[in-house]
TrEMBL record:
Alphabetical list of InterPro entries matching this protein: Acyl_CoA_acyltransferase, Diverse_Substrate_AcTransf, GNAT_dom
RNA-binding listed as a keyword: no
Organism: Actinocrinis puniceicyclus
Protein name per the record: GNAT family N-acetyltransferase
Keyword flag Transferase: yes
Family named by the database record: Belongs to the acetyltransferase family.
SUPFAM superfamilies according to UniProt: Acyl-CoA N-acyltransferases (Nat) (SSF55729)
Keywords: Acyltransferase, Transferase
Domain N-acetyltransferase, first and last residues per copy: 1-158
Gene Ontology MF terms: N-acetyltransferase activity
Gene3D superfamilies assigned to the protein according to its UniProt record, in alphabetical order: 3.40.630.30
Length: 163
């Protein structure tokens, strides 16, 4: 069962974010907190959306997809950027990942968005194979760049007063 996330899901989402980061060998990089996620998802001006994959028998959240809108100047339309997709190990193979991506594709089609896109670490062969089986194509000609930490602070620092 796939449903929109609710405020009560924030602790489960954060736990799964941490599990995903552990899998991606980057647990030390998780700075998110329940208040930060809650504000982003359900605050005054929500910036992101999330779907929950729920075990139909127990009601337990077993996976999530967290996404936000992006925009393609080439298409002249919004798209969905899937920030995270995660299914707990014990629930894998039951169709939850496919169901989450199917629902995202449905949202994109219903709203007239031009694409759904995401990144995957290059060593995650099981996920890459899964995505390709759905018809997703790797964008090998693109390199992702990121500004964060000290580099972001330096570039974003206020300019000295010219007066």
């Amino acid at each position: 069962m796939i449903r929109p996330a609710a405020p009560d899901d924030v602790p489960a989402i954060l736990a799964m974010v941490r599990d995903l980061a552990e899998y991606e060998r980057a647990r030390h990089e998780v700075a998110a907190t329940e208040p930060l996620l809650s504000a982003a998802l359900f605050g005054e001006a929500p910036a992101v959306s999330a779907l929950i994959a729920q075990d139909e028998e127990t009601g337990e959240p077993v996976g999530f997809a967290l996404w936000f809108l992006n925009f393609s100047t080439w298409l002249g339309r919004h798209g969905i950027y899937l920030e995270d997709l995660y299914v707990k190990p014990h629930a894998r193979g039951a169709g939850h990942g496919r169901a989450l991506l199917t629902r995202l594709a449905q949202i994109a089609v219903e709203r007239g968005y031009g694409r759904v896109e995401w990144s995957v670490v290059d060593w995650n062969a099981p996920s890459i194979g899964f995505y390709k089986s759905l018809g997703a194509l790797p964008q090998d000609e693109w390199t992702t760049f990121r500004l964060t930490g000290d580099a972001l602070d330096r570039l974003g620092a206020p300019l000295p007063d010219a007066s």
